[in-house]
User: Which sequence fits this backbone?
């Protein structure tokens, strides 16, 4: 029950190593993630099997690049069309400002209870804590988010927030926090949560949701979901506040179907989700349900900085499907909480350094074997491994300095080691002498081989190097 | 996914870039690569001044240092012959990242020229040599681990297995999660040793579960990692570079 | 400077210079070339795979199918519109039926708890279907508001077989959605579901537990 006991434990990217150590030693966590990721990978493979996937990914990447190329114009067009549709548009430079805006809207309606659809941007800006400080209760309604909130945790996956918990753990959480029976009956637990949350939907003063795609052409906010809590959140309370990163805009309505096709298939291996909810305004005077006010909060929070750099820009193509984490051998081993950030896994490792700075996140870009699985499955072809390398470069102060905290990992010792490597590898005669005396070379390799040998036998340098063997072979000395 | 590559006709001569890991730890694999190519009537030039492709510095973010190391290699291949690299990792570095490293510099054209001539060994043996193999070994089950760089960066998931399939007495066994990383990742294994150890533990378990007593790989980083784990546990599963395995069974 | 101005200025004065927008080729999401029977088969297979229940009926006799569904599901109170032909025909057909018809052309504030707690099913028309994904598309109106396809435990949707198109892209393009979007446009593909408890599928988490699609045919009705 360690995931339950860990409830109030807070995670931080600074403690990646310790958190990874704890997760690796926790069979429950290891098993939960391994099973889930194996299932998700298999489902994705199956659902794309009859598609020309490369062509579809190419289109997805093009649509996102086109949107980014026109980003400022599209944001203005989105704003104008939303306003024409009756949606009030707000702009926030950072998470605090976005929280303030949402708090003020709530206060203007004397709101006491906010119901939330799933929104990672609201996690990014810690909206719930902000609202609670203002005396407003914020309740998550996505089942996974609800369970995680009951357990006083944060999501461990951007699509499946409670993926770190298994059925027994969830049963225990629901029993302890809501008084349901202890059971392994998933239908019973789902029905109980439905009952508990329906009351809260009816009582909510404000619904807060995220946005999957914001369409500039029509001023439309698109939400992708299976449960119906997103539709509830955006339809039942009298006020709906949608909050989104500025990069989520797309140019035209026709851009939406390909991205939606890529999103659901990449995320959960579904052909389609149960609901695709497209909102283009508040309730009209002759309509009988839906919110009377709809607000859109456009959040920057570091995105316009990422936008400045041609290479880093690709980070903003992301449509938040989570396929990179589903396929990441590191994420699968350590789970989402280990990263200590809102967005875990490969996308988090290339995104969070911009939001939190490299001092805080210095272990994230290196937490990858660069195996390339993330880049291979990314539906919009973000070159994630290249971006990880770019952030490593920024960390050691050899990049362009375009990331906060650039150079934080630069140390005289490491620089000397790599300069030593450079010297040796650019002086062939010295290199050949060194490989002949290979044992001594270890001293020139950065860090010790210590950790290697905790789990593996150390490789033995060969008696004769390839250089030496080739010479012998050419002299006709034959078999070495 | 690497772009579709057009393969040249079989050349008279090739260069071999042996890689630093082979140079230091598995030189026989380099020599066996030379023997396999020479048996096909191809003359193999081994530039004596080669050292390392620069990848360790590159993936660690030390690109200035990596570039200088790479630059020292660029001048070694002056004739227009293919450059054979018995490693997907170093091959991927040279093919994909050399042009990036030298973009906008005076050496860009040279880097592109070199990159365009780089072939991973199994790729070259399959697609250019159309290598015939006459198996002289005993019947044996073998597992293959294709490195992530070969599989994904170079798009060569099939060339190693295709060569093994030509060995009449060898049964290539299937492992679970064959495409998953073994956890080496160069400096990753040093910077995140516990995560890396968990990954290689799973990889050795997957290989062991096939019942094969031997695995082959086309990358010495993976070989060092997986074989090192088996050895540490005192398990009787041996690893070998695919060049050595092919040569040993057909010579 | 306001945040709006600051953000837009930073985006416009991008340090690496202006970006070029690539062209997009949409061929991969259109041009399926399916005929009517393939479309119907795909629609039924896909929506069926996520627990959507499909009933085939004639254009003329669909209300008899509706009555059977109501009986089979034990629906006592059915929420439905008034003006749309689907609602109007259903009202006429069910006039002497035991099922109680619940009017939805009133502001939700007046009957929210009633809708949440004592309506067994919502009946709606649909604007069309999507073969590739097994989806229905709905544009709720004042006559058939948004929540009747969401809040009651069963949603009964009426779909004309000849309104099924190949792909979502085709629907958006051929029906010129971009010319004017309604307050709410919806795709619905099955009943509400979740897999948030250890990847185990459970239906009816927030929305309907059951989705029944009555497919009306002008020609021959498939078995």
Assistant:
């Amino acid at each position: 029950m360690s995931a339950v006991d860990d409830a109030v434990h807070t995670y931080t990217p600074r403690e990646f190593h310790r958190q990874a150590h704890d997760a690796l030693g926790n069979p429950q966590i290891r098993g939960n993630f391994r099973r889930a990721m194996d299932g998700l990978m298999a489902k994705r493979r199956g659902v794309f099997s009859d598609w020309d996937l490369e062509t579809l990914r190419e289109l997805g990447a093009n649509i996102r690049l086109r949107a980014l190329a026109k980003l400022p114009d599209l944001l203005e067009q989105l704003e104008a069309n939303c306003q024409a549709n009756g949606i009030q548009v707000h702009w926030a430079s950072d998470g605090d400002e976005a929280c303030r805006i949402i708090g003020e809207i709530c206060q203007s309606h004397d709101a006491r209870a906010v119901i939330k659809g799933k929104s990672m941007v609201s996690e990014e800006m810690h909206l719930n804590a902000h609202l609670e400080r203002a005396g407003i209760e914020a309740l998550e309604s996505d089942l996974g988010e609800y369970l995680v909130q009951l357990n006083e945790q944060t999501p461990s996956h951007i699509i499946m927030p409670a993926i770190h918990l298994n059925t027994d753990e969830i049963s225990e959480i629901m029993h302890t926090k809501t008084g349901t029976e202890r059971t392994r009956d998933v239908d019973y637990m789902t029905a109980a949560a439905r009952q508990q949350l329906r009351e809260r939907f009816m009582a909510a003063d404000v619904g807060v949701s995220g946005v999957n795609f914001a369409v500039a052409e029509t001023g439309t906010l698109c939400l992708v979901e299976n449960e119906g809590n997103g539709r509830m959140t955006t339809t039942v309370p009298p006020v709906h506040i949608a909050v989104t990163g500025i990069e989520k805009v797309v140019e035209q309505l026709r851009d939406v179907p390909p991205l939606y096709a890529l999103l659901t298939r990449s995320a959960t291996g579904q052909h389609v989700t149960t609901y695709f909810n497209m909102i283009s305004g508040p309730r009209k005077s002759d309509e009988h349900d839906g919110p009377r006010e709809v607000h859109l909060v456009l959040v920057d929070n570091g995105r316009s900085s990422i936008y400045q750099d041609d290479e880093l820009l690709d980070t903003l193509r992301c449509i938040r499907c989570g396929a990179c984490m589903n396929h990441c051998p590191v994420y699968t081993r350590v789970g989402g909480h280990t990263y200590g950030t809102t967005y875990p896994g490969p996308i988090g490792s290339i995104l969070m350094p911009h939001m939190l700075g490299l001092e805080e996140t210095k272990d994230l870009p290196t937490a990858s074997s660069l195996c390339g699985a993330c880049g291979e499955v990314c539906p919009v072809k973000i070159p994630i491994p290249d971006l990880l390398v770019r952030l490593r470069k920024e960390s050691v102060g050899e990049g362009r300095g375009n990331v906060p905290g650039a150079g934080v990992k630069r140390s005289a010792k490491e620089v000397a080691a790599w300069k030593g490597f450079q010297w040796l590898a650019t002086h062939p005669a010295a290199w050949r002498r060194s490989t002949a005396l290979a044992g001594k070379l270890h001293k020139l390799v950065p860090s010790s081989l210590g950790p290697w040998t905790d789990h593996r036998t150390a490789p033995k340098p060969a008696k004769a190097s390839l250089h030496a063997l080739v010479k012998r072979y050419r002299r006709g000395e034959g078999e070495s | 996914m690497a772009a579709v590559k057009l393969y040249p006709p079989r050349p008279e001569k090739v260069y071999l870039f042996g890689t630093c890991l082979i140079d230091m730890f598995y030189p026989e694999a380099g020599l066996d690569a030379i023997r396999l190519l020479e048996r096909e009537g191809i003359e193999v030039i081994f530039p004596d001044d080669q050292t390392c492709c620069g990848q360790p510095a590159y993936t660690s973010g030390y690109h200035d240092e990596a570039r200088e190391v790479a630059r020292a290699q660029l001048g070694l291949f002056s004739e227009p012959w293919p450059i054979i690299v018995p490693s997907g990792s170093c091959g991927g570095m040279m093919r994909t990242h050399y042009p990036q490293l030298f973009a906008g510099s005076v050496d860009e054209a040279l880097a592109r020229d070199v990159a365009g001539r780089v072939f991973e060994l199994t790729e070259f043996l399959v697609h250019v040599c159309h290598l015939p193999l006459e198996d002289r070994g005993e019947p044996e089950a073998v597992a293959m681990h294709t490195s992530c760089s070969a599989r994904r960066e170079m798009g060569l998931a099939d060339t190693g297995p295709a060569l093994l399939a030509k060995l009449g007495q060898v049964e290539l066994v299937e492992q679970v999660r064959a495409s998953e990383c073994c956890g080496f990742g160069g400096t990753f294994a040093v910077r995140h040793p516990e995560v890396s150890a968990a990954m290689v533990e799973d990889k050795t378990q997957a290989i062991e579960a096939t019942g094969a007593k031997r695995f082959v790989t086309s990358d010495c980083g993976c070989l060092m990692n997986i074989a090192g784990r088996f050895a540490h546990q005192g398990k009787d599963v041996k690893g070998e570079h695919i060049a050595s395995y092919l040569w040993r069974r057909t010579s | 400077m306001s945040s709006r101005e600051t953000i837009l200025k930073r985006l416009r004065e991008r340090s690496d210079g202006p970006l070029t927008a690539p062209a997009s080729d949409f061929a991969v999401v259109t041009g399926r070339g399916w005929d009517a029977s393939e479309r119907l088969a795909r629609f039924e297979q896909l929506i069926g795979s996520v627990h959507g229940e499909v009933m085939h009926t004639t254009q003329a006799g669909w209300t008899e199918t509706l009555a059977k569904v109501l009986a089979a599901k034990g629906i006592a109170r059915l929420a439905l519109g008034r003006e749309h032909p689907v609602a109007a025909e259903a009202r006429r057909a069910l006039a002497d039926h035991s099922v109680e018809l619940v009017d939805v052309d009133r502001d939700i504030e007046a009957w929210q708890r009633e809708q949440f707690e004592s309506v067994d099913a919502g009946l709606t028309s649909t604007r069309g279907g999507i073969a590739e994904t097994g989806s229905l598309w709905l544009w709720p109106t004042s006559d058939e508001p948004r929540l009747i396809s969401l809040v009651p435990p069963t949603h009964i949707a009426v779909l004309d077989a000849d309104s099924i198109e190949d792909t979502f892209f085709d629907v958006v393009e051929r029906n010129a959605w971009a010319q004017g979007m309604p307050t709410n446009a919806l795709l619905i593909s099955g009943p509400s579901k979740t897999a948030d408890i250890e990847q185990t599928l459970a239906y009816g988490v927030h929305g309907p537990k059951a989705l029944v699609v009555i497919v009306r045919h002008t020609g021959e009705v498939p078995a």
In short: Chain C has six helices and twelve strands. The first strand of chain C starts at residue 52 and ends at 58.
